[in-house]
Amino acid sequence: MKLAPALSMGLALLPGMVSAGGGFYNSCKENWHMEGNLMITECKKANGQYMRSRQDMNLCIGNSFGTLRAADNGGFTASCGACQQGQVPYVGGQPPTPYIACSCKNGNGNQEAFTNLNLNDFVENRDGYIWCFGHRSAAF
């Protein structure tokens, strides 16, 4: 069968592929934080050094009827506020989860809902820069 060579070729490509799943937390320092709409991080570069950068998370997060969602050019701060960030510690063998939590308008008048979002699901580190939906952070 010719399936095995095709499968092994596909698997050989996996290490070089860009993760759509994020996973920034595995290669960035735990001191990441939010300053308004900016996510400030120190992430490891390919040479082992750490680089500080900031990403406008309005480019990465949106509000869908009171629920934070990963969204290209989502503009979440237009309808969300009182945001906090944190890490849920190791639980049941699962790694820590970096999250943002905000109070967001739910589209029903001025009612607000408290919601959170796991940033590790869609934010990734590429050579020290934070990326989401093709948007690269800026070093500073």
UniProtKB/TrEMBL annotation:
Keywords: Signal. Residues 23-132 form the Cyanovirin-N domain. InterPro entries: Cyanovirin-N, Cyanovirin-N_sf. It comes from Parachaetomium inaequale. Gene3D superfamilies: Cyanovirin-N. This is Cyanovirin-N domain-containing protein. Pfam families: CVNH (PF08881). Residues 1-20 form the signal peptide.
